[in-house]
Structures
1.
Amino acid sequence: MATLTVPSAVPSASEDCEQLRKAFSGWGTNENLIIDILGHRNAEQRNLIRKAYGEAYGEDLLKALNKELTSDFERLVMLWTLDPAERDAYLANEATKRWTSSNQVLMEIACTRSANQLLHARQAYHARFKKSLEEDVAHHTTGDFRKLLLPLVTAYRYEGDEVNMSLAKTEAKLLHEKISDKAYSDDDVVRVLGTRSKAQINATLNHYKNEYGKDIIEDLEADSEDDFLALLRSTVKCLVYPEKYFEEVLRSAINKRGTDEGALTRVVSTRAEFDLKIIADEYQRRNSVPLTRAIGKDTRGDYEKMLLVLAGHDEA
Amino acid sequence: MAHPSEPEVLDQALSGIGVDEKLLVSILRKSHMRKGCSKFFCEDERQFERWNHTAIKSLKAEFKRFKDVVVLSLMHPWERDARLLKKALKKGPMQYNVIVEIACIRSSDELLGARKAYHSLFDRSIEEDLASHIQGSERKLLVALVSAYRYEGPKVKEDTARLEAKALLNAIKNNDKRNAMEDDEVVRILTTRSKPHLKEVYEQYKKFSDKTITEDLEVELLLKETVECLCTPQTYFTRVFDAALRDDADEDAKKALTRLVATQESEEMKGVATKFEGKIKERVKGAYKDVLVGMLEK
C-alpha cells in the first residue's frame, strides 16, 4: 500500500505549474510550496505537470528544480518527480557507473519490481540512455556478479500463482546440494533465482525450510565478508519478502552513523507510491518506533519534510 | 499426346513439396490402381500389397503443409512465435536454430510479445523453460538471446565495436580450448548489444581477419546462425530457402519454408524469397504453393 496522499480536489496541471514557477521566482526558493505540490501528486499527475511546465515556460521542470534546490533535498525531489519507470532507469544507470556503482541497487530494481514494471524501466532506459539496460550491466559487471545480475535484469517472470510442488521439491533439493558444496554461483542456483516465478521460488524456499530445517538465508551466511553471498541473500529477500528487505535497508540507513541518505532517499522515493505503508508497518514491528518518527529524528530541514510527506506524515 | 501412366501421375502429384490436389482428385475419380506403384506400396510375405510405411509418413507431412501454413498465418504473431519456441524446445538440439531464428530476427517488441504470449499459453516464462530443459553448452547463449530487449536506435560506437570484434576473434581462435559459445564475452556481446552495433562489429571484424565472423564460425553452427540472423539476415534466409528447396531436402528443412514465409514480413526476407520464386513454383505443389506464392506477393 502506498503512503502517498493526493488531495481529493487536485488543481489542474497548469495551476500547479504556475505555483511552482512562483516558488522558484525571486530570491530564494519556496521549498514548502514545492513539497506541498509535488509531494502530493501521483505519477500521472507529475507527468502532466512536467509536460505543462515545459510547454508554458520552455524549460524542463527537472532542470529548474536542479537549479533551485540543493543536496539531499534536491536529489529526493528530482527522483520523486520522475515517473517510476524513468526513476528506475536513472537509478539503474547510476548503479552501472564507476563512482556510483552498486550491484545491490541493480538487484533491488530487478527483483522488487513486477515483471511489467521492470519492463517499463527497460523501455525508459532505451529512451533516455540510447542503450539497453542489459548491455550496460553486462559491460560494467564481471564474474559472478554479472552471472547473477544479467538474468535478474532481463527476466520477464511469469506472474501467476500456479506452483508446481514437485518441481519445488526438486529445486529445493538442488539448491541445498549446491549450497552445501558452497557452489553459490552455480548455474542452477542462478537459473532458479533468475528465471522462476516469484510464487514458484517462494514454494521452493518453503519446501527448503520444511525439508532441511533452516531458512535458506541462514545457509547463505557462511562468510560475512563475501560480497557475492551478501548479494545472493538480498536477492532471495527481494524476491520473496521485499518489505523485510526494505525495512532492513531503512534500518541500516537510519542507524548508520550519520545516516545513509542515498539509501533512505532511494527507498522512500521508489516505494512511496507502491508499498511504503507495508514497509513502514514492518519497520514499526521490528524497531518499536514508527518509521516517520525515526526519519524525523535522523534528518532535518526540507529533506526531512519531503521524506515525511512522502511517507504519509503530514504536519497538521 | 502420350498419356502418363497412372502410377506416374500419382507420383507426380505426390512428389516435391506439398500435394497437387487437383491431379490427385482426377486420379481418384478413375479406377483403383495399386499394382505397379511400387514407391507407395510393397508386397509383404503374404503377397498382400500394403502401403509403404515410410511413404505414409512422408505423405502425411506433405498434406500437413497446407494446414500448417494456414494455421500459422492466421495466428497472432506473438502466439505463433511462442508456440514455435515451445515446439523447438521440445524437439531438442536439432531444432534450436529455430529458437535462434526467432530470438534474433524479431524486433525487440515482437520478441517481448512472444514472451507475454508464452506466459498466457504455458503458465511459465520462456526463459525458465529454456533454462531448465537445455543442459548443454548452448544454454547460456539461448536463454540470454530470448531475454534480450535490445536498443533499436542507430547509435553505434565504432571504438567499442572494434574492441568487441577483437574479443570475438580471440574467442574464436581459442575455440578448441574453450567453446566460444560458453565464452562470457561472446555471449555478452551477442546477447546484449543492439543490432546496428553488431553489424558494425561484423564490419570491424573484417579488419582483423581475412574471413568474416560467420566464415570463421563454420564449426559452431548455432553461434554462426546467431551472428547471421543478427548481422546478415539475408544470408540466413538464402541458406534456409536453398536447403528447403533442394531435391534431397529433409523434413526439417522443408518445414522451415512454411515457418519463414508465414512469419516473416520483413523486406529483407521478401527480397530473398523473390529470388527463389521460380524454384518455389517448380518444386512446390497445390494449394500450399498457392498460399506461399500469394504471401510472397503481398
2.
Amino acid sequence: SREGLRGTRHQPVGTGKEELEAAEQQHHGGGYRVVQWEWSYVQTPYIIAIWLLVASVAKILFHFSQRFTTVVPESCMLILLGLVLGGVVLLASKKQLYQLDPSLFFLFLLPTIVGDAGYFMPARLFFDNLGAILTYAVVGTLWNAFCTGFCLYAAKLLGIIDEQVKADLMDFLLFGALISAVDPVAVLAVFEEVHINEMLFIIVFGESLLNDAVTVVLYKVYISFVEVGVENVQTADYFKGVASFLIVSIGGTLVGLVFAVILGFITRFTKKVRIIEPLFVFLMVYLAYLTAELFSLSAILSMTFCGIGANKYVEANISQKSRTTVKYTMKTLASIAETIIFIFLGISAVDKSKWAWDTGLVSCTLVFIFVFRAAGVVGQTWVLNRFRLVPLDKIDQVVMSYGGLRGAVAFALVVLLDGERVKAKDYFVATTIVVVFFTVMFQVGTFPKVGTSCFTECNRVSFQAFDHILTAVEDIAGLQGYHHWRDKWEQFDKNYLSKLLLRKSVYRKSELWEAYQKINIRDAISVIDQVGLSSGSDPAQSKRVQERENGSGVCLDLQVIDNVSGSKVEEDMETHHVLAGNLYKPRRRYQSHYSRHFMPLGEKERQDREVFQRNMRSRMETFKSTRHKRHKKERIPRPTPPRPPLKTAICRGKAAWDLLRPVCLWRPPRSSLWTCSRPGTRASPPWRASPPHPPPPSPSTRASAPSPGWEGPAQPPTPAPPRCPRPPSASRRGRRSRWKRKRRRRSLGRHRKCSRSCRP
Amino acid sequence: MGSSSSSLNNVPDGQQLMQETGFSAAHLLRLYERFKFLDKDNRGHLRSEDFEAVPELSENPIGDRIVGAFFLPGQETVDFSSFVRVLAHFRPTEKNRTRAGAQPEPANSRNRKLKFAFRLYDRDRDGKISRTELLQVLREMLGMQVTEEQLQSIADRAIQEADLDKDDAISFDEFRKSLEKVNIDHKMSIRFLE
C-alpha cells in the first residue's frame, strides 16, 4: 500500500509506561489489542517483497499484449515502468526514497545474473572463440576508454562542453573508462529479444564478461590518480596499473577455478544428501564471487570461470531433479534481478537532485562511444579474420557494434564516484543515465531487423547445406585449429580431473561410452551377427506436425540483409516457418539457444540424436547390402585382422549393443539380448510398437571437453546379465558352420526371425 | 606431429599436387598427416569406414553424402591425390588471378565450388537435380517433424523459383543463376591454417 511506501511512522511499542499509555490512548478500547500494526518489525522484508511483486506483476501485464512485446523490448518497458513508479514516489513523498544502491547492485543483483550466465555458458563455443573474445574485451575496451576520454577532454578544451563541468583529463579518462565497457546485463536482456546466431552472441557476451577486469583496473587506477592528483602521478604508477591488470584478471580466474574444483569435489559425495545439492552449487558460485571481491580481484571473471569449470562435473554428479532445480532457480533469480535492475534504473533517473544536465557533454559522449565502438570493432575484426576459421563478415560487425550496450554496471560505477574528488559527478551521472537509456531503449528497439523472406527458399536450403559441407570438410581434414590443445586437455581431464571430481559410477559410464566410440560400427554388427540376430529396421517416422513456437514474429536472418520485396502470401510464411523451424542447424551457426524465458528442451541434443540415428541406420543398410557382395567375393579365407578373443569382443559388443539398441530401433527378441526366450513363446517383434526408450547418451557430449555435462539417462539401459552366454568353445565350431547356418537362414526367407527358441 | 614425414618427398606426387591444387608444401604435409591418421590400417587408401570413424560426421545430416563425394564414381577407395583434390575445392579463391586461356580452371574457382555443391545434390550425375533428388536432400536436412506434404510443397517452391526452362529439374546453370548474388567464396571456403 502507498502508506507503506511512504515509510510512515509506526506505532511505538516502547517499554516506557508513558509511551504505553499514549499508545493505549490512541486506540479505543481496553488493554489487550487483538490486532496490532507491526510495521517496524516487518518493514524491510516487506518492502523488498512488495518490490519483487511489483516487478513480477509488471512482467505479467507486459506479456498480455502479444503485439506489444514484439515492438517494444521488455527492458524498455521495465525502464518506463521504473520512471513511472519513480515519479509516483517522488510526488508522494517529495523525495526519492529508492534508488539503485551500488552495493545492493554489486553484491546481490549482478552476481545472480552473471552466475546464471556463467554456469550455463556453452563452454565449447566459448573456448572456440576465446581469441576473439579476449581481443574485443581487452583491446576493444582500452581503445574505447582512451579514445572517449581524450576526445571528451578535447571537446572540453574546444568549449563544446560547458565550463561548469569541472573536469580535467583524469576525470574524463575515468569517465571514459566506466562508460566504455559493454554491459553483460544489457547484452543478455537484449539478445534474448533479438535472436542472433550463437557465435555472435557468445562473442559479444563473452566480451561483456571479460572486460570486467579491464574496467575494474582502469576504474581503480584512475580513482587513485584522481585522489592523488594529476601532478603526483609517476611513471611507476602506470606500470603498476598494467601489472595490476594482469593480477586482477589472472587472479580472478584462478579463484574461480579453485572454487570450481572444490564444488566438483563436494558434489561427488552428495549422494546421501540430494536435497541440498542445489544449495552447494549456489553457495560455491556466490562465494567465488565474494572471495574475488574480497581480494579486489575481478569478481565477474571469477564467477564466470567457476561456472564454466564446474558445470561439467556438477551436472554429471548431481541427480536429475537437482539439475532441474538448479536450472530453474538460477533462471528465476536472474530474471527477477534483471527486472529489478531495470525498474530501479528508471526510478533513479527521476531523482533530479542527483544529476545535472549539460547538452554538450551528453551529445559528445553519445557520438563518441558509438563512433569508437564501430571503429574498434571494424579494426579488430579485420585483424582477427586473418586467424579465424569462421570469418566475421560485415553483418556480424554491424551487429557487434550495434550490440555494444551500456547498462547498469556503468550506472552503478558512476554513482559510486566520490562527489568530493570528482567535481563533475552530477554531470557524469546524467550523461550515464542518458547513455544507458539510449542504448537499452533506442538501440534495442531499432536493432537491425530484416524481412522475413530474406532469400528464396531454395537458397536458404543451399546455405544450410553449405554450412554443413564446410563443417564436414573441417572435420574430415581435422582442421579445428586447436585440436592439439583440446586433445591434450581431454587427456588431462580423463586421467586426473574426472577421476577426482566425478562420482565413480559416472566415471565408469563415461568409459563405456568411450569404448563404444572406439568400436567401429562394423565390429559391433559383426559381433552381434555371430550370435545370430534377427534384424528388422522400421524407421518409424513420426508424422505429427509440430510448429515451432516463435516468441517474436521477427526473423533475424543475419546472413544477408537484402530487401527482397517478399510477398506476404500465407504460403510463403508457412514454408518459411517450416524451413526455419526444422532445418538442422550446422555446428557453426546455431541459433541462439540461451534464453531466460523459454527453456528449450535440449534442442541440440535432439537434433544430434536424430541425425545420429539416421546416419547409423543408413550406414547399416549399406553395410548389410555391401556385406552380401563382399561375402561372395571373399569366400576364400581372407586375412583376418587380429581379432580380440571372442569373449571380450562379445562383451565389448554387448556394451556397444546396449548403447546401439535404442539408436537402431532394432529390437532383440522380447527379453534381453542374451538370455533365452522361453521355449514356446514366439518373440513378437517388439519393434512394431516403437516405445519411448530412454534417450541414449548423446554422442555429442562425449566429443568435447568441457561441455554441458553428461546427461545420464533417467533409467539406465536394461542391465545386461552378468555373464557372456556363449562358451568360448563355440567359436571353435568354425566359420564354415556359421556360413552354413547363414545360408540356411537366408533360404528361410527375407525375414530372419529368431526361430530357435533357445540359443546357447 | 611426427618428425618422420617432414619432407615433401614422402608425400606421393607431392610436387604435382602442389602445382595442381595450389596448396603450399606445409599444407600438403599437414593433409598427408591427416590422411595417414584416418588410414588406420595403413593401406595407403581410405575406405568409407575410415571416414565414418570421424565422430563428428555422424552428427552431420549430409555427412555421408559429403563422404561420398570423395569417392570417384565406381571407386571404393580414396587415395591421397583424390583426397587432396577434393579438399582443394575449399581453398579461398585468389583474387586478381589472370590465367592463360589454356590452363585448366583451378579447383577453388567459384565455378568448381558450385559444381561440387551441385554434385552433392545430383547423385546420379545426370546433370540435373530432379525432384526426387531434391526431396531426398530436403528429407535429410529437415527434422523428423516435417510431414510429407510440407516436404513436397517446399520442394515445389524450390523448383519453381530456380527452374527457368520449366523442365521440373534444376540444371547446373539454373543452380548457378539462383546463387549469383551470393558470395560463394565466403560460403564455401575454409581458411587452411598452418
3.
Amino acid sequence: MINTMECAMDAQSLISISLRKIHNSRTQRGGIKLHKNLLVSYVLRNAKQFYMNEKYAEIYRMQQYEEVMTVCNEIQELNPLDLAEDIAEASGDCCSQGAGSPLLMEPASVCCALPASNHSAHTPQQQLQAPAACSAAAALALQNEEVCKETNSVFFRSCCAEAYPVTDCDFSSLSAVHCNKTTVLDLDTHVVTTVESGYLHQDCCAVPCQGAQAPAKKRKFDFGCYATESEEVPDFTPCKRARFEDFYCPHSEQLDTSNISNLISIFGSGFTGLVSRQADSEFSLNGQFCSKQTLASLGAWTRAIVAF
Amino acid sequence: MLLVEDGLGICVVHLSPLSLSLSLSLSLSGAGGGGNDVQWCFSQVKGAIDDDVAEADIISTVEFNHSGELLATGDKGGRVVIFQQEPENKSQPQCRGEYNVYSTFQSHEPEFDYLKSLEIEEKINKIRWLPQKNAAQFLLSTNDKTIKLWKISERDKRPEGYNLKEEDGRYRDPTTVTTLRVPVFRPMDLMVEASPRRVFANAHTYHINSISVNSDYETYLSADDLRVNLWHLEITDRSFNIVDIKPANMEELTEVITAAEFHPNQCNTFVYSSSKGTIRLCDMRESALCDKHSKLFEEPEDPSNRSFFSEIISSISDVKFSHNGRYMMTRDYLSVKIWDLNMESRPVETYQVHEYLRSKLCSLYENDCIFDKFECCWNGNDNVVMTGSYNNFFRMFDRGQKKDVTLEASRESSKPRAVLKPRKVSAGGKRKKDEISVDSLDFNKKILHTAWHPQENIIAVATTNNLYIFQDKLN
C-alpha cells in the first residue's frame, strides 16, 4: 500500500504539480531533460493510480450505501416499530454467528466491517437515516445469502413473512413479528418483490420467483416498469443505481443475471486488471480489499471470484 | 580506566592508583579516515564571499588529478579553474601545501542547435584527468553534448633576440638589420596555458552525464541518458556505441542511464547505473554491443517503504569503483551503498545519508530538491566514503570502524586550522543542544560534489559557489 501518511499533499495536488513541472521543463534552458521528466511521469502515474483506486473504493462504498438505503427506506415505510425489534434481533444473530461455519466467517466479518466502512464514507450527504437499521439490514442480507447459497436468488426479508414458498431459505429466525406486507429484494437480480396479504406482487421479478413474468432485463435501466405495474412502488432511487451501473457497464443495454455476474467479474478483474497492468503489489492489496468487500455482499455464487 | 564522553568524543582516562597521575589519551570519535581517527581542519576556501551567487559561478564538478597535486573545478558558466598544491615548505613540514590558482580557462561556450531549436548549456558536467605522461597535463571536460581534451602546459622561458622581430612583435625593416644573433631562451614569469587539443562532438543525442578514462589510457567512454560511446583519445571523428537502451518506441521508455565508469584495472570492464536503481556490469570482450550485461546489481525494494516517490529516490545519481577495483559505491537520494562485484543480489553495506528526509519527500518534490544528484567518493585506502547533503553538510562513513560523521562547510568554521565540529540533525521530538532540527535545514545549501585526494587526507568540498579544502590535523 502506498504510504500516504508521509505525504501532506493529496494525489490531485501531486498530479497538478507534476504536470506543471513537465510543462515548465519545455522552456528550461538546455532542452528537455529526459531523466527528470521520466521521474516526474512516475510520480504522475503513482498519484493517478492512487487517486483512481480511492475513487473506485468510494464509489463502491456509495453503492453499498445506496443499496442499503433503498431497502431501509422501504422498511421504514412499512412498519418502523416492528422493524426496530426485528432488525435488532437479526443483527444480533448475524454477528454472533460469525464464528460459526467457515461460510459464515467472511460475511460476518464483512458485515461487522460494513458499518465501519459506511461511517468512513466521504460524502456527507450519505447520512443514514437509520444507520443501525441499515447496517443491520445489510448484515441480514449477508446472513441470508449464506443460508440460501444454493439458490440463485437471494431474498431479503424486511420483516417476517407468512410462508411463501419462494425459496428454500429458512427464515425462521425472523418470524417473530407479524405483518401483512413483505418486501423482498433480490440482491442478484435487484428485483424488489412486494408481497401483500398473501398475494405476491412481483414487478419484473427474477426467474426463480413464482409468477415471474416481466423482463428482468429492463430492470436495471428502466425502473418505470415498476410504477406501471404496481402501486407499491418502493421509494427507490433509480437514478443513482443506473448511474452506478452506467459507470461500469456503459455499453450494456440488457442486463440479466448473467450480465450481473459479468459486471461483478469485470469489476473484480478490472481492479486486479488495473493492478496487473501496472504490476504494483500494493495496489493489488488495495484492489483486492475493495473488491472483496463488495463482492462478498453480492451473493454466494460470486464466491469464486472473491476467492481469487 | 575511565571512559568519559563529551560533545567532541570519547576520552579515555587512565588512572594510575600508585602515582595518581593522569595520562590522557584522546580518541575522538566521529571523524573518519585512514584507520586512525582523523580530525578534520579547515584549510582554505575559494570563491566569492558574498551570498548573492551568480549562476555562472555555481560549481558543477570537482576532481583531483592522479597525484593529487592538481585540483580542477568546473562551473555552470563553462569555466574550468585548476588549483595547484604548493610544494611542502621545508621549514614547516607539518603544514601541507596550499592550493592556489594554477590555470583558468573557458572550456565550453553556450551553443545553439539550429536544427532542433535547442540551446546547449555550457555547464561543465564532468572533468576527468588523464594520467601524466610528460610535462604537460591533460584533462577531459564535457558539457551536455561535447567533450574536449585540454592540454595544460607551463611556460617559464621565452625566446629573446629575434633578428627580424622587435621584442614587442613588430617586424623590423630588413634593410635596418646590420648584425645577426642567435635568439636565446630567457626565464620569464610562469605562464600556464590551456589549449584544446581534441574536440569530440556530435556523438550524443541526449545529455551527457558521465565520462570515464580507461585504464589503457588510450580510450574513454562517454554516457548520455540512453547510450554509452567508446572513444579513442586520438580520434575525434568517430566513436563506437557500446550500450544503447533506447526502446523502439519511446513511449515504452522506463529507465535511463545515470552514470557510467570504467573499472580501474580491467580495461574491458565498465559499469553503468540506471534510474531504476540497478547497475549493470559489462564486458567489452563479449560483444561489440554490450546491451546484454554480464552482471546485474539490484536490491529488491522494501515494500513497506513504498511511496509516490519511490522511483525517484531509488534512481542512482553516481557510481564509483573503489581504487582496488573490488567494490563499487552507488549513491541514491537517501543512501550510499557499497557493492561487492562478486555479489549481485544486494549491497554489502548501506549507509543512510539523511534518512530524516524520508518524511519530507513531498515538499522536496515540490521544490525540486528531490532531483538533486549527489556524488560520492572513496578515500585513497577505500576504507572511508564521503558524500554531500543539505545545509552544507557532508557525511563520511568509515567502513572499517563502522562510524560516521556529519561535518559542515561554512564560513563560520573557516578559521585557519580550526577543527571541524561534528554536526547532528535531530530527526524529531526533543532537540538536544547543538542539534539542528530538520525543519531548519537550508535546502538551498547543498553539497553535490566532493573529492578526496588520492593519497592524503585532503578533501575538496563544493558548496554552491565556494570550494572548501579540509585536511586532517597533523600533530
